[in-house]
Design goal:
Elements: H1 2-12, E1 23-28, H2 32-49, E2 53-57, H3 58-66, E3 70-78, E4 81-90, E5 93-103, E6 116-119, H4 121-134, E7 138-142, H5 149-161
Parallel strand pairs: 1-2, 3-6, 6-7
Antiparallel strand pairs: 3-4, 4-5
Helix pairs in contact: 3-5
């Protein structure tokens, strides 16, 4: 299903696969299956056209999608945990304030100052706990925002322009958690 969609997208843009200068994908963190599929499809396309791959963090893409200058990006990681990271806009780029990690809202590091914008499904799943932890720092929240392909493309573009990216065989998902389910005694 994905490859026919890629074909339709390229045809709609009047492009052939061989005209692609690079391939970007949402590298994670996120659903283990989803990020593995994204990585595999990106690798396959890149091998086929001999193009570099740009893995883009989903939390960075979420920050980009927000349009805010200081962002606390949180995605529901299930198992009572969140994938989270914080970013600050510096010109056209993002500076990582908190590296992508996983944990409960109460264990998240403090943010410096106020005026932060919270976004992502983590705020829908754990909004009350996040409000207790960061209420004084947050200027606004949008729990409905999600990492979008357009944000991934915007973040990947300057990397490709600068000659960056990795070979298809070096592209890899970003995992910040090793386990995918709770044990029976943890449920």
């Amino acid at each position: 299903m994905v490859l026919p969609m890629v074909g339709e997208l390229l045809a709609g843009a009047g492009l052939a696969p061989a005209q692609l200068d690079g391939i970007a994908f949402g590298a994670g963190p996120g659903s283990f299956t989803g990020i593995r599929i994204a990585c595999g499809v990106a690798q396959g396309l890149a091998f086929g056209v001999d193009a570099p791959v740009v893995p883009v963090g989903t939390l960075a893409a979420l920050a980009e999608e927000s349009g805010a200058a200081r962002v606390l990006a949180c995605i529901d990681a299930r198992m009572n945990e969140l994938y989270f990271a914080a970013y600050r806009r510096e010109g056209a780029a993002w500076a990582e304030v908190l590296a992508p990690a996983v944990g409960g809202a109460d264990a998240m590091p403090a943010l410096d100052g106020d005026g932060w914008f919270g976004c992502g499904s983590g705020f829908a799943a754990r909004g009350e706990a996040l409000a207790r932890r960061f209420g004084g720092c947050l200027a606004g929240v949008d729990a409905s925002l999600h990492p979008h392909a357009r944000a991934i493309a915007r973040l990947a573009y300057p990397v490709l322009l600068a000659g960056g990216g990795v070979s298809a065989d070096q592209a890899a998902p970003l995992y910040v958690r090793d386990r995918v389910a709770l044990k029976m005694n943890e449920r």
